[in-house]
Amino acid sequence: MSTQRAARAVAQQLTDDADRARDRADAAAEAFLAASRRSNDTAMQSLGAAFGSGQNLLSGLGAIDRVNKLTSNTDELAATAQKLDDAATFAEERAERAWREVDDVPTIDYQELVAEAENAVVSARSEVAALETQVAAASLSQIVELPVDATRLSEQGWALPVSGRVTDGFGPRPDKPLPGTKDFHSGTDIAASCGTPVFAATSGIVTVAGPNGGLGNWVLVNHGAGVETGYGHLAPGGILVSAGDHVQAGQVVGVVGDTGLSTGCHLHFEVHLDGTPVDAQTFMAARGILIQ
Questions:
Q1: Region annotation Disordered: residue ranges (predicted)?
Q2: What percentage of the chain's residues is helix, strand, coil (to nearest 5)?
């Protein structure tokens, strides 16, 4: 391959990398804007609940602290979005410069020049990869630090356990999805991307938090009066509570995964009455939460 052809190939690689970097920067900016809107709405709800209903001073101070945490979270997303934007701009400038220099490259084969250009591509990709690592870490932080009221509660004080769509309901299974699964499905499967936050359906005490056979990583919460809710197939390392923890309605207890006997990323959600599984969709609907 001639040096000029190699230079064109390198310039095209840099252009492709710049396009991908710009896509990531745009996605990060959209995430920041969405988080800003969500945190502002949640912050106002928190302050209104603390000061608009006759709560004491300590409750008000607690609300202010939660607003500060929300602001901190969005600040982190803003910083990450800015870093990705800077990286994208840098990549675009390198690509433009490479194209301008293509015509100046002689057609004879200068191996040293080709090697330098290829090293430039490797260097640019390394910088983008480092920023992607920062974004991934920031995303996990956002999940773990979500406020208790990040999900809307019903009037009865219950929350949707995960945002997604139902793929398998409660009841007999004529066709088993996997060998080893039971003939009767004791829960409701809700499809969601791995890493999606999972919320406590209502307040209670965590009684189990760990591996549980075919259910994979499992969390069981006792809500009193014989009511329990269970959350299965959580991601490896995705259990964010421990046995004995007190949780509130809407608090993050884990993240979606596909551990155990699972055909893909989803939450297996169960409701027990006096130890017996019941239809979670019917039970939750009676408490103002629709699982669809």
A1: 1-22
A2: 50, 20, 30
